[in-house]
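Quick illustration for those who missed Monday's session on complexes.
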Amino acid sequence: MLTLINTNRMRPAIGPIGLDYVAASVRQAGIDVEILDLGLVDDPNKAITDYFSVGQPELVGLSFRNADDCFWPSADWFVPGLRDTVKTIRCMTDAPIVIGGVGFSIFAKSILEYTDVDFGICGDGEIALTALVRQWQGARRFTEVPGLIWRENNRLHANRPSWPTSISLGTARNFIDNLGYLKRGGQCGLETKRGCNRHCIYCADPLAKGDRLRLRDPSEVADEVQSLLLQGIDVLHFCDSEFNVPRSHAEAVCDEFNRRSLGSKVRWYVYMSPTPFDADLAKAMAQAGCVGIDFTGDSGCESMLQTYGQQHSREDLAAAVTLCRSSNIAVMIDLLLGGPGETPQTVRETIDFIKKLNPDCAGAALGMRVYPRTIAEKMVAEELREGEDRSIRRKYSGPINLLRPTFYISEALGERPAEFVRDLIGGDQRFFEPASETGRNASEDGEVANYNYNENLLLTEAIRKGARGAYWDILRQLRSS
Ligand code: B12
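Prediction with cobalamin bound:
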């Protein structure tokens, strides 16, 4: 009945866990579903042709995770590739096509128009896709499908996304080749909750996942870990926006892991905010198997933290690093340099501060990807209207189009901001530097500094040879060896 296709072919390969959850839920509703995973095949066009020459589903669902790599100056854009995939599928079947996934949800209407598919689903896929199948087979009352976008009478219609407050997901995780992804991608994902209630100016998560926290029962999360363990998967990356928001849920998940002694069987990594975090949570996390935390640090300068809408101070960041050190958890700090109001002085302050904090590593990302419907879009609206000349960086010409990779780098950082940041870092091996505007990047210099996980061949090769873990952790270990 339904064929779900993973379109993400980036390397290292990341498992399409959204499809694992969605397929389980659709199957539970009694609908036949199969997965065609283009992430694991050598030739995607051949895989599509082979598949549709024998199978003719009634509906085809495409999962679209990354619209672009969100990385300046690489600015790799994947929407044209999605359109090509749609064309290839159209040649093989008349079945209607629906696209979903986080990359789709951020830009839903624009991607629907660009790819000319029949339907799109914004937000969670589990309930929505089941509803779409039912409506497609029955009365076709599309207004009853949460998050659906479709064309009718030459107009686009959009329903409110499905962001159910309580989420209960399948725990078997048996629709995708999770072990294959561990071998090619070094870790497997799982979720303990969805949504984010914070207001970071640049973040698209509330648009794709909703702005309320939607928690999973910790025992369901632990059941899922046990299913993955049975498949031979013992290295995980949690896919929550920030694991410690809310703190009570993070603690409840750790308590359940500890009750089942999972900490001795799996090791896992998370994204976290520097607050709320304390010794009790750090201890519970370490005992439950957490070996690495990537903090949304953003900046070491108070004025920039305020601009970005962060709730933590630079002292909170310092405290978080100390807590990780005393709990034996590896620590990475993600920075976002170049936002509105950034000056050479604020960047210098940040880099100096991070050097003093001495985390295991720090990612010096330069350039804020401007997403539609975010606070950042409103803040830089004037510059967006005016186009190229001030703080907007992009690799396309013509009018600004936020569907395409469009970045903000404060003009105060000058013509060559990456060179400036690299000079300040001064070869300090704890930092992952921004790639240089001149095209020369650190990995071309033979250094292990490229932390764009898009076609990162060094990382892919290390994983092939057996490295496992979060990518920053693999890269920093490569560097120190
Ligand atoms: C965890 C995470 C990572 C981890 C992944 C770990 C792992 N093993 O899974 C790591 C650190 C490796 C990572 C890397 C990258 N990431 Co990342 N990541 C995330 C994060 C936080 C969660 C993704 C996730 O798995 N969510 C859980 C699953 C279940 O959700 P889902 O896939 O969206 O699926 C649901 C719905 O979308 C829908 N759905 C999905 N498919 C389909 C299909 C159909 C037909 C339907 C109807 C519905 C549907 O239903 C699902 C269940 O409800 C997201 C932000 C976010 N909150 O989503 C960013 C995010 C996806 N990443 C992003 C980026 C840019 C990257 C990188 C490219 C960064 C880089 N340059 O290195 C790489 C790419 C890696 C790769 N090879 O694909 C961006 C993409 C934005 C964009 N511009 O397109 C995001 C959105 C963050 C952001 N706001 O910037 N990432």
